[in-house]
Amino acid sequence: MKAINSFLEESKVQIIKNADAQGRNKSGKIGDSMEVTQEGDVHTLLGWKWIANAWETGRGKTVNGGDGAVRRGVEKWVADNNITPRDNISTKSMIYLITRKIHEKGTQLHIQGGKSGVISNVINETRLNKLANDLAIEYSSEILRLL
Q1: CB–CB of 130/124 below 8 Å?
Q2: Using CA atoms, how far apart are residues 64 and 133, in angstroms rounded to an integer?
Q3: DSSP 8-state symbol, 26
Q4: Phi and psi (nearest 5°) for 86?
Q5: What is the torsional sign of CA 123, 8, 129, 23?
Q6: The whole model's pTM is what?
Q7: What residues does each domain of the chain span?
Q8: Residues 6 or more apart from 99 whose CB is under 8 A from it?
Q9: Contact 33, 15 (CB under 8 A)
Q10: Most buried residue, 15, 94, 103, 108, by CB count within 10 Å?
Q11: Structure confidence by residue, pLDDT tens digits, 73-125
């Protein structure tokens, strides 16, 4: 269905634009992970498995110990954004402090209520209603063509 594919492609573009505008896609890797696929009649918008946490709700505090992923993510974020520590602490200490705070409280987005709008301002009731109307038109045209 053209309507579904168009909806997903437009959603992907707008979600990435929203993330860029909020500075949530600095490396571009999360946005690059997004793709629209189709297998038969099934259309899907795929992306990195934690995209909603990273862009929409934020990451909550750690509840089951952790496996080092937060520290690795912070190390990468610090490197990608050329962040340098202040107040005479080492980069390693800064990374430790940021990681500890995320483990204890979650990310700033999560702490602030977790509603960035990066995704929810795109996949919303208005756009879903438009999709339903577009599908109705598409199906009606196909039914009339078959008659």
Answers
A1: no
A2: 44
A3: S
A4: -110, 175
A5: positive
A6: 0.79
A7: 1-57+115-147, 61-105
A8: 70, 71, 74
A9: no
A10: 15
A11: 899 889 988 899 988 999 999 999 999 999 999 999 999 998 899 999 999 99
